[in-house]
Amino acid sequence: MGFKLFCRYSLGDARRPLHETAVLVEDVVHTQLINLLQQAAEVSQLRGARVITPEDLLFLMRKDKKKLRRLLKYMFIRDYKSKIVKGIDEDDLLEDKLSGSNNANKRQKIAQDFLNSIDQTGELLAMFEDDEIDEVKQERMERAERQTRIMDSAQYAEFCESRQLSFSKKASKFRDWLDCSSMEIKPNVVAMEILAYLAYETVAQLVDLALLVRQDMVTKAGDPFSHAISATFIQYHNSAESTAACGVEAHGNAIQPCHIREAIRRYSHKIGPLSPFTNAYRRNGTAFLAC
Amino acid sequence: MASAPQPERALRLLARCLIWYPPPPPTVGFLSMEEEETYLELYLNQCAAQDGLAPPRSPLFSPVVPYDMYILNASNPETAFNSNPEVKETCGGFSSVDLSFLPDELTQEDKNQPVIGSKHETEENSESQSRLPSPSDIGLGSNSPSLSNPHSQQHPSDTDSVQASPEKPDSNSLPLASITPMTPVTSVSECCGIVPQLQNIVSTVNLACKLDLKKIALHAKNAEYNPKRFAAVIMRIREPRTTALIFSSGKMVCTGARSEEQSRLAARKYARVVQKLGFPARFLDFKIQNMVGSCDVKFPIRLEGLVLTHQQFSSYEPELFPGLIYRMVKPRIVLLIFVSGKVVLTGAKERSEICEAFENIYPILKGFKKA
């Protein structure tokens, strides 16, 4: 769990994130992933397969183009990286040759083949050529850049280490955390990679949204609507201290649990005429942050 | 700055240094294994003789005399004294060394300087010395790791004093200082003499005959063959330390060598082994497919800044891989840049591509130096 603290630091939270927030984030991510896994298992069963494959997860994500594109990009980078590292280390090269199957670009092939098969309108396949800038990713990069500019060497080293943490490093622990062993249908290797990535994305999304919420709470001088903040939001602020603590300086302050809760509330809020159709998991009721 | 274990593994220890062989004249025909080894020794002796220095001491010491002296001064006073007369000799010798390998900007600078006889000579000295230190640096490093430390300390000071002469720190300690007034060398020392060292070379060659892999695996030493897993024999030799994949079609892949010449030599050795087993092996179409080099810029790099400004070329996913992957367009090289300052370059077909790529990236990296 200390890992989560580190994770959030690297994604934009303060250097010493609050323990309560960490607990809450862990809870949220855990719930979301378990639900996601259940849904994927259902899809898998519909197909009559025995393992949860990446195709199932891609299928669940088909509705949200941006997030799907981010996932695809991640898979391609993963392929590319293993290709390069293979060229560098001769041991890796031999291992790859010995493992028999043609491993080059396997994730890309999987994704391409699958999207080809379910694509009715051509939108999904168009994503492969799409070179639009991912705004969310851009924002995260800029935030990281701003944070690191003012750090000294030692802080920067710590920051880099925390950024290198991921759910995919300790695969067995991750599996246990998700309680995969009790499931009938288990995810395969590439599916686990994707799940680890989605878990990371969930944390990242939570941090993004929580930071937005916190920013909203800063009363700007001259803003005529500053007194009219959301009524439900006020509920979370019981004491004057917490309001003050959440206030003025965006940098250096840890994200509070109230920010997280508000972020989730806003995200799952059904606003607008098309909201029932935009999110993939309406029947379940929960909104997934990562998909 | 602690780096993750993965880059170290990918880079091997940088203490294993490149032994810099200039490319030999093209070989015709097929040399026997023993001839190969003596050929190499002969060639090296030839090079040393050309440089006008005594071959008995390691030929790698020969090209750079002042550094040689500096190190010897530090460790072994008697040999320093002995090498002194040689040093004086070669000073004159250097002026006749062919400097055409230096970039054009340098020779321009030469012309701009007031042409006074001795000064011109000494400038050539300083320039040739500023280029040559790096291979000898590396050579020294491989011979005496403890002695290489003063060297590695010198280089950061070189990088810091941008306009100042790279040799200034030495000129105080060298008795030759009075003879060689140093002039700042700008364009060549932009990279401050950091030359990427080759770590791995992958090459292919066609033996041009069908091979019986089972026979090879049975009779050759250090050969593995597991037809169910992979349809090739994996053979290894100790000198040069390489691995070869030999296919039944007669094609062969050779990996693990640290220089172009070593790769060729190793490939020939494998071909020789196959030949000795009774196959009419030839040595056709030897081609280097990939070269991997690495070096250290010696300062921490702020990768977040780099990925933002060079988005179209870089990808940085720290949870996936601790280094930034930079795809350089010209030359077409992939660089892995780590926070610690280590840089790995791969995808080159020629050594010059690696050097050029590094020269291109170095000023960019300097811009993102983490103070």
TrEMBL record, chain A:
Organism: Callithrix jacchus
Domain of life: Eukaryota
UniProt keyword list: Activator, Nucleus, Transcription, Transcription regulation
Name this protein carries in UniProt: SPT3 homolog, SAGA and STAGA complex component
Annotated family: Belongs to the SPT3 family.
Molecular function via GO: protein heterodimerization activity; transcription coactivator activity
Location(s) in or outside the cell: Nucleus
Gene that produces this protein: SUPT3H
A single cellular component GO annotation: SAGA complex
Gene3D superfamilies the UniProt entry points to: Histone, subunit A
Listed InterPro entries: Histone-fold (IPR009072), TFIID_TAF13 (IPR003195)
GO BP terms: regulation of transcription by RNA polymerase II; transcription by RNA polymerase II
TrEMBL record, chain B:
Biological process per Gene Ontology, one example term: DNA-templated transcription initiation
Keywords: DNA-binding, Nucleus, Transcription
Biased amino acid composition, Basic and acidic residues: 109-123
Family annotation (InterPro entries): TBP, TBP_CS, TBP_dom_sf, TBP_eukaryotic
Protein localization: Nucleus
Biased composition (Polar residues): 141-164
Gene Ontology molecular function terms on file: DNA binding
Single GO cellular component term: cytoplasm
Record-linked Pfam families: TBP (PF00352)
CDD domains referenced in this protein's UniProt entry, alphabetically: TBP_eukaryotes (cd04516)
Region (Disordered): 109-179
SUPFAM superfamilies reported in the protein's UniProt record: TATA-box binding protein-like (SSF55945)
HAMAP family named among the record's database cross-references: TATA_bind_prot_arch (MF_00408)
UniProt similarity note: Belongs to the TBP family.
PANTHER family: TATA-BOX BINDING PROTEIN
Protein name: TATA-box binding protein like 2
Organism for this UniProt entry: Callithrix jacchus
Taxonomic path: Eukaryota, Metazoa, Chordata, Craniata, Vertebrata
